[in-house]
Amino acid sequence: MKKRSLRTHFLALYVMLAFLCGIVVPAVGAWFSLRTLRTYQEQRFQDDLDALKDSLIALYNEEGKWDHERIRYILRPTPPWGGMIITLLDASGSEIYTLKPRTHNRNSRINPENNTQILKFALKNQHYNRTIGFLELNFRKPSGRLEREFVSYLTRYTLIGAVIMIIVACGLGFIVAGSLSRPVIKAIERTKQISHGNYDNYDNYDYDSREKIESGIIELDDLSRCVEDLGRSLAGQENLRRRLMTDIAHELRTPLTVTRTQLEAIADGVWEATPERLNLCVNEIERLGSLIEDVENLARLEGEVINLKFERTDMRQFLQTAIDSFTALFERSGINLRGNLENAIFCEIDREKFRQVIDNLLSNAQRYTNPNGEVSVKLSRNKSGAIIEIRDTGIGISEKDLPNIFERFYRADESRARVTGGRGVGLALVKAAVEAHGGNISVESTKGVGSCFRITLPIA
C-alpha cells in the first residue's frame, strides 16, 4: 500500500468532498428538479383542461345549445392554449368552433406525423347523463427546449461552482492540513529525540512557549503536551536511575570496603584476629545480605510472584494490635501515638505482609518525628473503600522529593546518616505490597510540618 503524508491525505479528502458537494449533489438535485418541473407542467395542463371542459359544459347547460359568441370568449387565445388548435364538436361529431394559434396558417394542414399529438375528450351533461359534444386538442409535442435550457444553465453553473469550490478547497485544505500536521510532525521529532535518549533537549520545542505552535485542536495539542510530558518524565526517571545506581553502589561498597579493610589488616598481621574484629566483619556481611534480601523481596512483590494468603480481617482490631505493639517504642521516644479507628470495616488482606506495611510506616513516623510530637493512625471508609491514614508532626518531605519517595533506593535527604535514612527500600516495599492487595498509597507532606500516608483498600 502506497504511503502518503498527512497533509496529502487531508488535501485529497478536501478535494473529494468539494467534488462531491460541487458536482454529484447538484446533479442529483437537478434531476429531481427537472422531474418535479415536468410533473408540475403535466398537472397544470390537466387542471387547465378540466377547467375548460367545466366551463363549456356549464355554458351548454345554461343556454341549452352551443352559443358561438360565448364559445369564442371561453376559447379565446390564452397562455395555456396559445400553442394548439382547439376544436369543439357537437354530439354527432360536426365541427362547431375551431380556435387556431395566431401564428397558424389557416390553409396549412396538420400532419399527424409532424411530431403532433391529438387528444379528444367527450363533454357529458351530468344531469341527463348524455354526451353533448367533443373537445379536440391538436398540438405539437413539446420539444423540451425549455427543459434543455434549464438543464444546460444548471449544468454550466454547477461546473463553474464546482471548479471554484475545488480551488477554494485546495487552498483551505493546504492551510488546514498544514495546521493539523504541524503538531504531529513536532511530536514525531520529539519522539525521535526521546528514542535516542535525548529526553530534555528543548532546542526545537519551547515547552513554556507552546502556544506558538498549538493548532487549537484539543486532541493534537494534548498529543504534543503528552509527548513533552513523556520526555520530561523520562528525563526525571533517567536522573533518578543514575542516582539510584550511585546509591546502590554506595550501599554495596561500604560494607564490602569495611570487611575487606578488616580482613586485609588481619591477613597482613597489622591487627589480630580478635572476636570483636571478626564480629565487625560478620555484621557488615549481614548488612550486605540484608540489602540483597530487601531487593529480592521488592522484586518479588513488584513482579507479583509472591502468593498472598488473603483473609477477611477486621481492620480496626488489626490496626489496634499494631498500635499496641509500637506504644512502648513511641513512649521511650517521647512521641504520642494515638488511634482513631472506625468499627465494622473488613478487608481481604495477607495479615503478615500487610503488617509489614503498617510497621514500616509507623517506624518511619517514629524515626522522623521529634520528641513531644504526635503520630495518629486513622481508619475510615468512603466510596473508594477503606482508608488508613498515618499522620505525623515530623520533619516532613520537601516538594521536590515527594514524587520519588516510593522509588527503590531513594532517600529524600542524601545528607542523612544511614542509621536514620535507611537503605531507601522500605517505602518501595510498602507500595508494592499495597498494590498487590489491590489498593493504592499516596502521601501528602509539608517540609517542617509533617506527613500523611494514605492507604486505600477494597472493602470485603
Bin the strand percentage: 15-25%
Query: Helix coverage percent of residues?
Result: 40-55%
Overall pLDDT metric: 77
Regarding quaternary structure, what we see is single chain
Q: How many DSSP H or I helices?
A: 9
Tell me the distance between the termini. Answer: 54 Å
How many strand units? Answer: 11
Instruction: Record the strand order, biggest sheet.
Output: 6-8-9-11-10
Tertiary shape: elongated
* SSE order, one letter for each helix or strand: HHEEEEHHHEHEEHEEHHEE
Task: Summarize the structure in words.
With 460 residues, the chain is of the alpha+beta class. It is built from nine helices and eleven strands. It has a five-stranded mixed β-sheet, with helices on one face. A hairpin with a 4-residue loop joins strand 1 and strand 2. Helix 3 runs parallel beside helix 4 and helix 6 runs parallel beside helix 7. The chain is elongated, with a radius of gyration of 49 Å. 16% of the residues are buried.
Chain-wise SSE layout:
Elements: H1 6-63, H2 68-74, E1 84-90, E2 95-99, E3 116-125, E4 130-140, H3 145-195, H4 218-267, H5 275-302, E5 311-314, H6 315-332, E6 336-341, E7 346-349, H7 351-367, E8 374-382, E9 385-392, H8 418-421, H9 426-436, E10 440-446, E11 450-457
Helix pairs in contact: 1-3, 3-4, 4-5, 5-9, 6-7, 7-9
